[in-house]
Amino acid sequence: MASRLVVVLLPLACVAYAAAALAWRHSWISAIAAVLVAAFLWARHSRARFAAYIFFSAMAIRGALTAAWPALAFAVGAVLLMQTPAARAAWPRLRPGRVRGDRMPPP
After folding, report:
1. Roughly what angle, to the nearest 10 degrees, separates helices 48-65 and 2-20?
2. 83 located within any domain
3. What is the pTM of this model?
4. Which of 51, 57, 70, 98 registers the highest number of CB atoms within 10 A of its CB?
5. CB atoms within 10 A of CB 52
6. Which domain holds residue 75?
7. Phi first, then psi: what are they for 98, rounded to 5°?
8. Does residue 67 surpass a pLDDT of 90?
9. How large is the average pLDDT for residues 68-75?
């Protein structure tokens, strides 16, 4: 149940952030990035976890520098949610040697 909740809520939260970024800040780039991250998370793409970390880190830095405390809180909460066992099961971490595919020869 928790895994299913995480898999549904995190992409929906990204889409809600995209709508808020468009409505209040008119930030098209941030909204497009949020929708792309949500799509990667929803499809359980192999790079979804990495993309989410990059997106939420950039959001946290921007929130801290511009004193946008709700954005900072959202980003920190999302990163903490990505650390839960349910999120790790849904979006596994990248492993060395598997980044470029299974056919990569060992070093």
Report:
1. 50
2. yes
3. 0.81
4. 51
5. 23
6. 2-90
7. -110, 5
8. yes
9. 93
